[in-house]
Design brief:
Layout (H helix, E strand, L loop, with lengths): L15 H31 L3 H35 L3 H23 L4 H20 L2 E3 L12 E9 L7 E6 L2 E3 L2 E4 L1 E8 L20
Parallel strand pairs: 2-6
Antiparallel strand pairs: 1-4, 3-6, 4-5
Helix pairs in contact: 3-4
Length: 213
């Protein structure tokens, strides 16, 4: 009768923890490979095609050409504007000479100077005015016109029954403009409604308005 020796050990049983660790490692490897494949697919999908790149390059080229044309047009306008008003600073300085010649003529007339002297100074003033007109620097017609703050500078008000309120009744200094720019505004006196001794407004017919009760 045979018996199994007591010291003979059976085969060791498998460790479940080791199997689980192996399974997790395999899953991680498979998952990593799957994610890498997905990232590769996404990169391939995002990369633009040669046709798309060519279209983008054409758009950039067209925008650059449009910007260049706009810059050239703007530069040409600015250059033309500078040429048009290049004489404006000189004209502004020459207006002081015109004023002085006008004062000299008035003073010579009041002092009873000879007619030849007055005529000579007057001729110089006319020549200067002609030179200014050649550069389109012309006088502003102000007297009798409605006050315009863009063209006129009001230095006082004059009560008047003969002119509507806001009308220029006197020009104390002649203004000039070059093309559509004012070289200097006209200094003027502006009409306001005339009032009576008691502060009542006087109408155009000369009658006073009845005070309201």
């Amino acid at each position: 009768m045979s018996t199994t020796p007591a010291d003979e050990n059976p085969l060791p049983a498998d460790n479940p923890d080791e199997h689980e660790a192996l399974d997790l490692d395999s899953a991680e490897v498979d998952g990593g490979q799957h994610e890498s494949a997905e990232e590769g697919d996404q990169n391939e999908a995002v990369e633009p095609s040669p046709e798309s790149q060519l279209a983008d390059a054409r758009q950039h080229l067209l925008r650059g050409q449009a910007d260049l044309e706009n810059y050239q047009k703007r530069s040409q306008r600015e250059l033309a504007e500078q040429k048009r008003y290049a004489a404006l600073p000189l004209a502004r300085e020459l207006l002081n000479v015109t004023d002085n010649l006008k004062r000299a003529i008035e003073a010579a007339v009041e002092a009873g100077e000879s007619e030849q002297l007055v005529s000579g100074v007057h001729m110089v003033a006319e020549q200067l005015a002609m030179i200014l007109s050649q550069y389109d620097c012309l006088m502003i017609d102000a007297k009798g016109q409605e006050f315009d703050p863009n063209l006129h500078e009001a230095i006082g008000q004059v009560p008047s029954q003969d002119h509507p309120p806001g009308t220029v009744v006197q020009v104390t200094q002649v203004g000039y403009r070059m093309h559509d720019r004012v070289v200097r505004p006209s200094q003027v006196l502006v009409a306001v409604a005339s009032t009576g001794a008691a502060g009542e407004e006087i109408t155009d017919t000369g009658g006073k308005e009845e005070p309201t009760e």
